[in-house]
Design a protein that fits this description.
The chain is mainly alpha-helical and about 230 residues long. Helix content is about 60%, strand content about 0%. The longest helix is centred in the first third of the chain and has 55 residues.
Length: about 230
């Protein structure tokens, strides 16, 4: 091959490499934008879930102990410190940033557990409360939206991490100083967002019937109460 052909071949390779790097950088930028927007959406849904939990805790539909635990967990979620963005290098070391994220997810897991206990069958006393279904429905809907937002965010994070793991992307420093995004690892109480696993509040008892507290066995009932009471 003549020097001219070698030069043309080298220019072609350089052009192909430049095109590939440009296309990959654009794709990575889109994935980073998706990570940021999905994290913002997740943060918003977590705030709405905490607000719905506060509403449920203060509605009078729960027993005092459960309401207090739920209110504490919801308040902790609303007051939890927010670290830098999912890609923002921010202040401090990587370990400090990861510790901040882990603390946040621990708080959200605690709220999920409190909601699971509060929305368990028999825990909501809807007698004489026509608004009970709306209050509980808002809490369940908030849980469902958190589940979806967390799923979308984690999917975006995993796609970005897979692309950033490629050798050429690392060698060319296409990610710049953006922090490696991490998935949102917390219990989102997903089952509570599905109506088939989270029954509606119990309706008002029929006239003349006896209301049995949750967890009471038939042997603990009044001796005069019949089997259908």
């Amino acid at each position: 091959m003549t020097p001219l052909l070698w030069t043309l071949l080298l220019l072609l390779v350089c052009c192909l490499l430049a095109w590939y790097l440009t296309a990959t950088a654009a794709r990575l930028d889109r994935l980073h934008h998706r990570v940021e927007t999905s994290r913002a959406s997740l943060d918003a849904e977590l705030a709405r879930r905490a607000s719905a939990a506060v509403e449920l805790a203060t509605s009078g539909l729960l027993d005092p102990a459960t309401a207090l635990l739920l209110a504490d967990a919801a308040t902790a979620s609303l007051d939890a410190p927010r670290g830098p963005g999912p890609l923002d290098p921010g202040p401090g070391t990587r370990e400090e940033q990861e510790r901040c994220d882990e603390e946040r997810w621990w708080v959200e897991t605690a709220l999920s557990q409190a909601l699971t206990a509060a929305l368990a069958p028999g825990m909501v006393d809807a007698r004489g409360r026509p608004d009970a279904a709306d209050v509980v429905g808002r809490a369940r809907g908030a849980v469902r939206r958190v589940e979806l937002a967390r799923r979308f965010h984690n999917d975006a994070v995993m796609q970005a991490r897979r692309l950033r793991a490629k050798r050429l992307v690392r060698w060319a420093h296409l990610a710049g100083h953006a922090r490696l995004p991490r998935t949102a690892d917390f219990d989102d109480a997903a089952a509570l967002g599905r109506r088939d696993t989270a029954p509606d509040p119990a309706p008002d008892p029929a006239p003349g019937s006896t209301v049995v507290p949750p967890g009471t066995s038939p042997s603990d009932r009044h001796p005069d109460a019949g089997p259908g009471s």
